[in-house]
Request: fold
Amino acid sequence: MSRTPLDSSARVVYGATRFNAPGSFSGLAFSSDSRELSVLADDTRLLTFSVEDGALVDERVLDVGRSLFCLPDGDVITSTWGQARRLKPSGRMAWKVGTLDNKLGNVSVSPDGTRLITFGEEQDTRVWDVETGALLHTLPPEDGQLYAAAFSADGAWLATGSSRGMVRVFDARTGKERAKRKRTKVLALAFSPDGSLLLSGHGVGDVRLWEVPGLAPRAGFTGQHTFEATGASGGAGCRWVAFSPDGARAYSLGNERWVRVWSVDSGEELSHLTVPRRHAQGSSTALSPDGKWLATGSTDGALSVWSTEDGQPCTGDAAPTDIEGLALTARAVSAASRSTCVTWERATGKRSEIPTTFPPTDVKGLASGEWVRLDYDSVFVGELLGEESLPAFQLGTYASGPLALSRSQTWIAASADHDVEVWDVQRKVRVATLTHDARVQACAFGPQDAWLVSVDTAVRIWSLVGTPRLLRSIPLKAGGVARGLAVSARGWIAVSFDEDVNHYHARCAILVVDPRDGAVVSRLARPRLRLGQVAFVGEGTRLAVTGSGGRLLLADVAQARWHDAPEEARDEEEEPTRREELGAHPLAVDGNHVAFIGEDRSVAVIELDAVAREAGEPFLLESETRVVVPAEPVRLFEQRLAGHHFFFEGRFKQASKALREVTVKELGGAVVAKPGPVVTDVARGELGKGKPKAGVPTKARVLSEEVLIRLLLPTREEAFAMLRGEVEDGLGRWNAWRERFRRDLGERFPVPLTGIDLSGRRLSEAMLDVMDFREAKLVGTDFSDVNLFDADFRGADMRGANLSRAHCYRAIFTLADLREAKLSADLMTTRFDGADLRGADLSDANLDYANLSGADLRDARLPANARDVKHDAKTRWPKGAGPW
Reply:
């Protein structure tokens, strides 16, 4: 094969570590001599690492499993869904016990490798012989669901713990119950090496010690896991316990991600280890038989291993998982995952980390040295700000794709469900909301920020000159998904598109689109290889694409060919592996440098050879594609669907017949019972095994149930007219429309009221729960007695507004101006972070569990009592007052 641009690339790797390999890890176990550590990857592979150096020494394909036990003779026992298997080193199955009927089944094996117990909800608790797989005992029913079981080291005792707090001890050889004691929900059990003590971990965070066999509590031992270490309060459930080989120390893992070490004699906490955030809460944990090593799994790549002698980690700082966004600047590379955002300085490799709260996440780097970071529905600008910092702006809903940064770095675009929100980064104001027919998967800016491209069910091109508007739509194959989107400096659009989104196949290609006419000028296919993010490198003649399995692929746009695949072999199917089906990863580009996720989940940065500049002037589409047509008057209410004849077909999950027909007729449309030439719109639910009925004109518009619901909701103009009283009985009409939808959709009523001016209006009789009032003008508006549950007032001007007796549970007033507002309301679990509350009256408010971080409360009147009010150093309190 000819030399490719990757052959001479300089590569720098960040976040590589020992005990790491591709795959999602679950159960893990040490060998009997403590020299090897085995782990299940993707439920189908058994990986074995050397404990001494963390190197991968063996990899075997095996039957499905999610927990793992290593036997002294080299065999392993795996379990899944209540079924256990004994497997030989060759992978051959020696025996199989249990059934697949119970999906919550669990397995535990005695330390001496002679006994096995299977248990779970609606499943008999059974004890088996490990050598033969023969059933030995069926234990009597538990008081509640069985959550934990453990054998003593010699196999003589068996303990069980249930959801109702019942701990039982049995003679493991006969199955006879010897003792029982009730406490709180039991999550973990372990016997001391000599079998004289039983350690239990509980759902409320307790760690208790019992004498065996009578289960008398050991006086003076009262371990506890709490969330205080993470800045929260309450007990942190204890999910794993163990003893050191000499029985002097006890270990326990809690949901606060601390492994605590206790003195068995005194009950004193001796030390603790912090489990990295990349691991799942309550991750799979094991102590080596010689007691020298402690390991945790339950993560995508990179186990954690510690020396119990000094508590030092044997693994380095691994890259976070799963990484959803990458950013690359001349100074640093940053990776945003589902639980953390990590940044490395490129010159020194120095690592910094902050937590994230909830996916999706993404990060972009600015030339100024600042960062733009997405965390679910919040966007932060500046240094990599932590969770206590105020967001620069917040989206109307959760993000549905990665962020897009404009070429001038003045705008950011965010895919937010059915919208693309465009924000000014420095002024922190929204400049456009682009509404789509379906969920937006990605967006990107065109040359000179004059236009923007987005993808939902089609590639859509939007003008950003003057009033934003849709210029062109290029349909994509139904059922596919866009995994990446990029625009070159000149304006060529590249879409990474997967036609088959099931887990086991991939029919991916890069579509290169000319935005001037919407033509697909080339199609770069990679059958059965999952393609992900795509970016133009350098001056725009080369494409970088991430591929599953940690591949970075390069393509030549002008010649429409892959650099790593000969022309004659381009369309051949590539050999799939399990790793190919894990999905693709993000990438980031800075000039000729590309950052991507490698095969071992580390972050790699490479420098590519320079390429020629893309020839020609940028595609500025406004003047070329604009068609001047007379503006049509806005058609509201009875006129909006005039002339439309709807035919409803199939089974609708949400929109009932009453909702469909009543609303269509109210909007001036007609409903027909049978298909025919008069039909203009076909609303189609699920057809099952049937086919669409014949007789519908080919020119008729076909609507999915989701699109139909959006069509029948009030338009923005209609909503404004009703709430402003610009139509007769506006509030009554609004409530009737809202009630009709409530019967089918519940509280969901996605009519945006962002930016609406209702200043001075009396809305006491309006149904306004779960509504979007972001940046609205509500000066002096009367919301007294209104249900504002889950309403969003972020950035709204609410000076002097009256919310007396309003129900504002979970309402959001982040960054709102509430000066002199009357807020004697139910404000439980309400957000006021960054709000201006100077002079506001909250004296009779229920302010429990509210968030006042960064709020200005000077001259505000506060209630005498409040519970668990969140605040920070930036909160400005009334003179002489402070935190409750």
